[in-house]
Write a structure and sequence with these properties.
about 110 residues; alpha+beta; Arc Repressor Mutant, subunit A; about 50% helix; about 15% strand
Length: about 110
């Protein structure tokens, strides 16, 4: 068996979730009903711009729902995993387990 080339996919993992920052975001959102931007900023350690960019990708993919409102004349953005996002994360975790705990190499 020839070694895997770096350009080949590593397995069945969802590439949108597999990116480290988005994996952290989705993991946090999986544990709470919803979270505001500042909470995610503090829990992920990302910069505002980085968090905004990753959230935009997750919202565009339909994995995260976004709700914007004003509270005391200040913007408040809430995020929550959509049904599709929760399902994708559950599948990602199952695929990760298969990839890491599946068939063991012999030899």
């Amino acid at each position: 068996m020839s070694p895997r080339r770096p350009t080949e996919p590593i397995g069945p993992l969802d590439p949108l979730i597999h990116e480290v920052a988005r994996l952290v975001i989705v993991s946090v959102l999986n544990e709470c009903e919803s979270a505001d931007f500042n909470f995610l900023l503090g829990t992920t350690g990302l910069t505002r711009g980085n968090l905004s960019a990753h959230m935009a990708k997750l919202v565009a993919a339909g994995y995260v729902e976004e709700a914007k409102q004003f509270v005391d004349r200040k913007p408040l953005t809430q995020y929550r995993l959509s049904r599709a996002g929760r399902g994708a994360y559950t599948k990602y975790r199952a695929d990760w387990r298969k990839l890491t705990n599946g068939a063991r190499r012999r030899g």
